[in-house]
UniProtKB/TrEMBL annotation:
<dbReference type="InterPro" id="IPR014710">
    <property type="entry name" value="RmlC-like_jellyroll"/>
</dbReference>
<protein>
    <submittedName>
        <fullName>5-deoxy-glucuronate isomerase</fullName>
        <ecNumber>5.3.1.30</ecNumber>
    </submittedName>
</protein>
<dbReference type="Pfam" id="PF04962">
    <property type="entry name" value="KduI"/>
</dbReference>
<dbReference type="InterPro" id="IPR011051">
    <property type="entry name" value="RmlC_Cupin_sf"/>
</dbReference>
<dbReference type="InterPro" id="IPR024203">
    <property type="entry name" value="Deoxy-glucuronate_isom_IolB"/>
</dbReference>
<dbReference type="GO" id="GO:0102482">
    <property type="term" value="F:5-deoxy-D-glucuronate isomerase activity"/>
</dbReference>
<dbReference type="InterPro" id="IPR021120">
    <property type="entry name" value="KduI/IolB_isomerase"/>
</dbReference>
<keyword id="KW-0413">Isomerase</keyword>
Length: 266
């Protein structure tokens, strides 16, 4: 199995736990906890900042002992936009599930001067990108232009069955601004219906990295470098949650030259 494909560790509790150490990189961490109503999880950010994304379900969330109330409204990631909470470095957070809950814990190096906040559905509008079989639906949870974080960029995408996404292929693995930014990236995948699968390829121009993976419900793929398109097979919609971070909080990508002709209207 590819080293870039991370399977769920369990059927409940801590499902995923990608750290910079386990991924072999510097910036991005990603975990996913699955809780039953009444169960609680908590954490300390230390020198990192964290974005808690309620992928599905509801929870009572508190930061540094201050209640943010009960958050969440969708019961699957395919039903509307998410609730999320930004937690700055040096903070402690707690989430108590009030329904079945899938909670994503996205992390990256933190900075000073940032405050905890709730990111409610509609904070950033869902966008439709592409046309035809390259149409997908994008919700920025923490975009680069919101000034709310030191490192984290968080976005979720829904790709209908039979469509492509993160396509035409692009990469962001060079610290060469303003032309391109260096960003590590994780993809947390969900399928609807859940027994489906999708395909993701991660590859470089020289093919020193070239892996194609069948991703299933709950899988995480790692993108340390290279292009990383996704294809949703017929009959199965694909949701993915992206976490990106690097030395600068800028998403500046480079398109694969041989496929640039596809960019007209996509």
């Amino acid at each position: 199995m590819s080293k870039l494909l991370v399977k769920p560790k369990a059927k409940s509790g801590l499902m995923q736990n990608v750290t910079p150490e386990s991924a072999g990189w510097t910036y991005v961490g990603f975990a996913l906890e699955r809780l039953k109503a009444g169960e609680t999880t908590e954490g300390e950010t230390g020198d990192k900042e964290t974005c808690l994304v309620l992928v599905s379900g509801k929870a009572k969330v508190a930061v540094d002992g201050e209640s943010l109330g009960e958050l969440g409204e969708r019961m699957t990631p395919f039903e509307g936009q998410p609730y999320a909470v930004y937690v700055p470095k040096g903070s402690r957070w707690q989430a108590t599930a009030t329904s079945d809950l899938d909670l994503a814990i996205c992390s990256a190096p933190g900075g000073d001067g940032f405050k905890a906040k709730v990111i409610a559905p509609g904070t950033h509008p869902q966008m439709t990108r592409g046309k035809g079989t390259n149409t997908r639906y994008v919700t920025n949870i923490m975009p680069e232009d919101d000034g709310s974080a030191q490192s984290l960029l968080v976005v979720e995408v829904i790709t209908p069955g039979g469509h492509t996404s993160s396509y035409p292929p692009h990469k962001h693995d060079q610290d060469d601004l303003p032309a391109e930014s260096y960003l590590e990236e994780t993809y947390y995948h969900r399928l609807n219906p859940p027994q489906g699968f999708a395909m993701q390829r991660v590859y470089t121009d020289d093919r020193s990295l070239d892996e194609t993976m069948a991703v299933e419900d709950g899988d995480v793929t790692l993108v340390p470098r290279g292009y990383h398109p996704v294809a949703a097979v017929h009959g199965y919609d694909v949701y993915y949650l992206n976490v990106m971070a690097g030395p600068k909080r800028i998403w500046k990508f480079h398109n694969a030259r041989e496929h640039e002709w596809l960019f007209t209207g996509v």
